[in-house]
Amino acid sequence: MFDFLDSEDMEILRRAINARCKDLNIRSDSSEAEMVASQLIELFQNGVTDEQELITRPIAIELILWGK
To answer: If you average pLDDT over residues 14-28, what whole number do you get?
Structure first.
């Protein structure tokens, strides 16, 4: 069936998304921020639910922004 995010999950994701955007110097209302959110939500849904890991694990947008 479907796994829905509860309020605690949403709070973890909110903090992780905000931290990643800050670290990457991305405005929260930008399309890049939407990409960060999408990538972190995908990680979360695939079992990466630790907030610190969400904040530090490499994501694709870093390659786009930094060319690494």
So the answer is: 95
Q: SS3 for 12?
A: helix
Per-residue pLDDT for 64 more than 80? Answer: no
Residue (of 40, 13, 17, 39) closest to 29 by Cα position: 17
27: which residues sit within 8 A by CB, 6+ positions away? Answer: 21, 33
What are all long-range contacts of 38-45, with beta carbons under 8 Å and residues at least 24 apart?
40/13, 40/16, 41/13, 44/5, 44/9, 44/12, 44/13, 45/3
